[in-house]
Amino acid sequence: MVTNYFLDRGHRTVHFVSGPEESLDSHFREQGWIDALARRGVVAPPVIRGDWSADSGFNAGLELAHVKDCTAIYAANDNEAYGVMQGLAAAGKRVPDDVSVIGVDDVLRNLIPRLTLTSVKMNFGAVGRRAFRMVARAIEDPQRSRPTRELIPGVLVERSSVRDLTR
Fold first, then answer.
1. Any stretches that span the bilayer, and where are they (predicted)?
2. Is the pTM of this model over 0.85?
3. Which domain range does residue 129 map to?
4. pLDDT, tens digit (0-9, with 9 covering 90-100), for 7-21
């Protein structure tokens, strides 16, 4: 969703700041980014490995500020995304005028006044309810219960950290 959002707004590629390598959430987000770029015929730029912290995002922002033609950054969570924005600013880049940024989880909305970060809000309540039902079914009838994989999509909360380059 995030990668397509950027590409649909005229960004030629999307850089990704991941979470820790051992994180399944980060792995799935990274794979989705790679797959979305590939479906659009875009080669994925190198991943910048983060650790979910704003500090790792800050360092990624500093690094990406010096990458020619970097106009879009997808961070695996909002802490990293906020750090990316601060790192870009420290390097003299403006969000969204020079570089657009999107994060995931929408957890900063109640912590940072006038938050400008566009983010994917996850429906953790629905995830928990679905997981509970799956476990309950497995306990009630272990013979008929099979593991399933279900995607519960997030919702993009648009703020003002993305520039539309098609306009």
1. none
2. yes
3. 1-157
4. 999 999 999 999 999
